[in-house]
Design a protein that fits this description.
425 residues, alpha+beta, six-stranded mixed sheet, five-stranded mixed sheet, 53% helix
């Protein structure tokens, strides 16, 4: 039995070897097809990373600012007529689309800043806001020191320096620089019952932490932990429970910039107003879709040409081998075995060429990565890398499927060849 199997296998591979060179030559397009797919996957991943990290990363296109829905286009920070409800804020923080969410809260009690400017005591009634430390991570080099401590760090809008220097200039005093203001002392005064009686105010030492362009609203910002803790301690001071603070804005960063339009639409359906770069994201997605479409079209063209080449080659092989196949059919060779021999041969060649195409694609990607800056200077910041995972097994399976499918019809044709007509020829 074993000898029979070995003998049949020897005859089988001997038959395959007769047409192997012709089949290899006709299936040569598989190499270019697989290499093309490897290059496409590498470029697609590299361009997506470049757009997301380099272009959009520097533009913070994946960041959005979430506001309550207010009428007449007014900003809630100015009008104070609306806030983000606590359940809504919790729902936003729980959304899996976001990599980070920071909440801007406003203290509901009356707050004042007491300080001394060029020897003159000043008491300014001003809104007090709080936000988490991480909000300033990429906005302020001193962000790590923005913590709930004594003295309490205070961040003010950068445009405040212009107003201060304008006032000092009119009074004949020298101008302040931003670095000179850092650490400037003061006192925070909070009236829980909105009382004007100075004896009912809670005071906390302040120190100016920094000036920031991120603060684009009238008011000052402290760590949100201070406001939350203060509100808990003084929750019942008025005789009935009060929250003590409200959510007025939320700053969120979307994990996948391509999902920005969908996330924005979801938030709008929740009755919120969203500031984002959604339009840019939509246009980018459309541009990437066009690029994908062009690559898909080119891939289909290469695939069709490869299939036609393999099909024609095996059709010729079927004609050339029809006499030999007919003789074998007369002595009992089954149709299934004829079909199997054609398909197996094509699959074997497809696997071999698929491996070559995969490594050729890797080589060309390496060459492109090292030379693209010289060929196209505009792409010097584009870092091209090989695929993030191994697609070798997918490449082999795909090339086997293409080659075997292309040889199937000629194989069926060869197995159904009329024995007597063939012998008569």
């Amino acid at each position: 039995m074993l000898r029979y199997i070995i003998r049949n296998l020897r005859f089988f591979f001997k038959d395959i070897s007769k047409n192997i060179l012709k089949a290899l030559f006709s299936s040569f397009g598989i190499i270019f097809l697989i290499a093309f797919l490897v290059i496409y996957i590498s470029l697609r991943q590299s361009v997506s990373r470049y757009i997301g990290d380099t272009l959009f990363g520097s533009m913070d296109i994946n960041e959005i600012i979430i506001h309550p829905k207010t009428g007449g286009g007014r900003d809630v920070i100015v009008s104070g007529e609306n806030t983000i409800r606590r359940p809504t804020a919790a729902q936003i923080r729980g959304m899996k689309d976001f990599s980070s969410v920071y909440s801007l809260i406003k203290m509901d009690h009356v707050t004042r800043i007491e300080t001394s400017v060029v020897g003159q005591d000043q008491t300014i009634r001003i809104p007090l806001y709080g936000i988490e430390q991480g909000f300033f991570q990429n906005r302020n080099p001193r962000w790590a020191s923005f913590t709930n401590k004594v003295p309490l760090p205070l961040v003010i809008p950068k445009y405040s320096l212009q107003f201060l220097n304008s006032y000092l200039s009119q009074e004949g005093f020298p101008q302040f620089t931003e670095s000179a203001l850092v650490g400037y002392p003061g006192m925070l005064s909070v009236s829980v019952n909105n009382s004007e009686d100075s004896r009912e105010r809670f005071k906390t030492p302040l120190a100016l932490h920094s000036l920031s362009d991120a603060i684009d609203f009238p008011g000052v910002v402290v760590p949100s932990a201070f406001i939350i803790n203060f509100a808990k301690v003084h929750r019942m001071d008025s005789g009935k429970p009060i929250e003590g603070y409200s959510y007025v804005r939320m700053y969120a960063k979307v994990k996948d910039v391509k999902q920005l339009p969908r996330v924005t639409d979801t938030l709008k359906k929740m009755g919120l107003r969203v500031e984002s770069q959604s339009d840019i994201s939509k246009k980018t997605n459309k541009a990437m879709a066009v690029v994908d479409g062009i690559f898909l079209l080119l891939g289909v063209v290469v695939l069709v040409l490869t299939v036609i080449s393999i099909f024609n080659s095996y059709l010729v092989i079927a004609y050339d081998s029809s006499y030999e196949i007919s003789l074998k059919r007369v002595i009992g060779l089954s149709k299934l075995r004829v079909i199997f021999s054609f398909v197996f041969e094509a699959a074997l060649i497809g696997a071999f060429l698929g491996v070559i195409g995969y490594f050729l694609g890797h080589y060309l990607i390496g060459l492109l990565a090292s030379q693209i800056a010289g060929w196209i200077p505009a792409f010097k910041e584009l870092i091209i890398t090989r695929p993030e995972e191994s697609y070798l097994h997918y490449a082999v399976l795909f090339s086997v499927a293409v080659s075997a499918f292309s040889a199937l019809i000629p194989a069926v044709f060869a197995s159904n060849k009329n024995l007597f007509k063939t012998m008569a020829q």
